[in-house]
Specification:
The structure holds two protein chains of two kinds.
Chain A (H helix, E strand, L loop, with lengths): L13 H16 L3 H22 L5 E2 L5 E2 H32 L1 H6 L5 H30 L8 H25 L6 H18 L11 H7 L3 H13 L15 H22 L9
Helix pairs in contact in A: 1-5, 2-3, 2-5, 3-5, 3-6, 3-7, 3-9, 5-6, 6-9, 6-10, 9-10
Chain B lengths: L7 E10 L2 E11 L4 E5 L6 H9 L6 E6 L9 H4 L2 E4 L11 H9 L8 H7 L15 H13 L5 E5 L7 H16 L3 E5 L3 H7 L2 E6 L2 E6 L6 H5 L1 E7 L2 E7 L2 H12 L7 E3 L3 H10 L3 H8 L1
Parallel strand pairs in B: 3-7, 3-8, 5-6, 6-7
Antiparallel strand pairs in B: 1-2, 1-4, 8-9, 10-11, 10-12
Helix pairs in contact in B: 3-4, 10-11
Classes of the chains: A mainly alpha, B alpha/beta.
Chain lengths: 279, 292
């Protein structure tokens, strides 16, 4: 038995290939106009509808003077946007790639799996950033929502955003194995996201939900991302309206990190390069 | 590259799916620089075998060495020496041809020039076209481009010309011959007998997960299968004779008839006839009829 001959030149670096993957992923992502419009416009449209409907006649949330509805809903929409661009986008796109044979093709090349996932992370990070910036711009300009002015608030925004994106991404990779085909991916993934939005205080004031629903939502990351974002975009006095009477930053970080770990473990164990019916 | 060691060695390969023994004691050797075509009916175990060699599937039993390594455990360095063109893929819709060939070239330590590869597969005109807008044959040529851009020592082509028009197929054959000139070893599966005949140094016929025949396209099936068939008529009755020496038979017939031999035909079985006989077995007599 002989060892395989050494390659003439060294293999390209994993990080360099991750960057190359990111660029290709982003380029093709932004060309899929319908998906991009949906993922980008959805939180903006929802923000507009909900703040207009609930905010009629200058209605506000909470005790006088209250918080305008646009401001109250913005954090939930930011959280939703992050979930759409990470979890939903990856769960669907990887399921489709697997079904179409794209993953199998990559498996046949010397591209390291790490570079493939790094490419996805890069794509998700950039698209979530662009999307969140767009949402904040619309909220500030069209709905006059005040933006946070302290470095502290932006610091909180940064870690909630990053942890939310990271856990959403790994969970999206893990969930991509659930749909049986690329065609069913949307139909399987979207309801999960929708239900989470309804129970996690994205569309309704979280305090108004029945306590059992609050308890269910507390298991999942979206509720915590929304709560973390409320601590960024709502005035300090709003902390008292929270169910627990606190922003619970520690618990938020703990839940998001826990989901990140669960996603990593499940994702690496269940990930397949080929369809279920293929080998 | 190691010139003396075969590119592929397979001994007694076995793979079972549930109750179906897909590969059942298959042996195969492909020498470096050789083009070998694997033929066989659907379900014969061709794709399972190829995908075991490519490292996609695990074998149940048997010995497999591809470029000196076990594909089941081989790493990136091994993958960089192997090119794979899978049977069908429908991915990558939004990227352009040039973007993809350039992108995939980055995966390899010593890639071919992307533009040369695009030219070689005849997609220069389509370099800036998105994959979504390519025809089936153009997509397939892109698959080939992505399979060869890494300058593989060993190339797997799984039914590469399905859906090609005759002109595109001939252009593709020229491309494969060019790769052979560069020293690439190629293992090819195909449904087209004339493709195997045009390209392969050696043809391997697989049936029920086993090799039932192998040899140069012109020698496949052995001398008996290649015997000429002479047919003629006497008083309206057809006669036929299988022979190694058709000229002698015709000379004898001519002497007997004392002039023109009625309804004279001399037919040599094509590769297709031989192949159908090999995979059909029981229908050997029918095959001779079809040969006429």
């Amino acid at each position: 038995m002989t060892a395989p001959a050494a390659p003439a030149t060294t293999l390209p670096g994993t990080l360099r290939l991750g960057v190359a993957r990111s660029r290709l992923e982003l380029r093709t992502y932004f060309r899929e106009r319908d998906a991009v419009v949906f993922i980008f416009a959805y939180p903006v449209i929802m923000l507009a509808i909900f703040s207009t409907v609930f905010g009629q006649d200058g209605a506000t949330v909470g005790p006088s003077p209250g918080i305008p509805f646009a401001q109250y809903f913005l954090p939930g929409m930011v959280a939703t946007g992050v979930m759409l661009s990470s979890f939903q986008s990856l769960a669907i796109s990887i399921a489709v790639e697997r079904d179409e044979g794209g993953l199998k093709r990559l498996r046949g090349t010397p591209l390291p799996a790490t570079s493939y996932f790094a490419g996805k992370v890069g794509q998700v990070l950039v698209s979530s950033l662009v999307q969140t910036a767009l949402l904040l711009l619309v909220a500030a300009v069209l709905f006059s929502v005040p933006m946070p002015s302290t470095a502290d608030a932006w610091g909180t925004f940064a870690w909630v955003f990053l942890l939310g994106t990271a856990s959403g991404s790994v969970l999206g990779v893990a969930f991509s194995s659930v749909p049986r085909s690329g065609r069913s991916a949307s139909a399987v993934v979207t309801p999960v996201v929708l239900v989470l939005q309804f129970i996690s205080g994205v569309f309704f004031v979280f305090n108004d939900l029945p306590s059992w629903m609050q308890a269910v939502a507390s298991v999942f990351p979206l509720k915590w991302m929304a709560q973390g974002m409320r601590s960024v975009f709502l005035p300090p006095a709003a902390e008292a309206f929270e169910v627990s009477g606190s922003w619970q930053h520690g618990a938020t970080a703990a839940v998001l990190v826990a989901w990140l770990a669960v996603g990593l473990v499940v994702g690496t164990r269940t990930f397949r390069w080929t369809r279920r019916d293929d080998g | 590259m190691n010139g003396t060691e075969p590119a592929i060695v397979v001994r007694d390969l076995r793979k079972r799916y549930g109750v179906k023994q897909a590969v059942d004691g298959l042996d195969l050797t492909v020498d470096a620089g050789e083009i070998v075509a694997v033929l066989g009916p659907n379900g014969a175990g061709k794709t399972t075998t190829i995908e075991i060699l490519e490292g996609y599937r695990r074998r149940d039993d048997g010995h497999v060495r591809v470029l000196g390594a076990d594909p089941q455990t081989a790493g990136r360095a091994w993958r960089s020496r192997v090119g794979i063109v899978l049977q069908s893929a429908n991915d990558l819709a939004e990227a352009t041809v040039a973007e993809l060939v350039r992108h995939f070239a980055q995966y390899y330590p010593d890639p071919r020039d992307a533009d040369e590869v695009i030219d070689a597969v005849g997609l220069r005109e389509k370099a800036r076209t998105r994959v979504r807008q390519l025809s089936g044959g153009q997509r397939r040529r892109l698959d080939v481009a992505l399979g060869i851009v890494g300058r593989p020592e060993l190339l797997f082509l799984d039914e590469p010309t399905t859906g090609f028009d005759p002109e595109a197929r001939r252009a593709f054959w020229d491309l494969v011959r060019g790769l052979r000139t560069d020293g690439t070893t190629i293992l090819l599966t195909t449904h087209y007998l004339e493709e195997a005949e045009a390209l392969a140094d050696r043809v391997v016929v697989v049936r029920d997960g086993r090799v039932v025949a192998e040899g140069a396209p012109a020698e496949l099936g052995g001398r008996a299968a290649r015997q000429a068939v002479v047919r003629w008529s006497v008083d309206g009755t057809r006669h036929e004779e299988r022979t190694e020496t058709p000229t002698a038979v015709v000379t004898r017939l001519a002497a007997t008839a004392g002039g023109e031999v009625a309804g004279l035909e001399v037919v040599r079985p094509t590769l297709e006839d031989v192949y159908l006989e090999l995979i059909g077995g029981a229908h050997a007599d029918d095959m001779v009829e079809i040969a006429g």
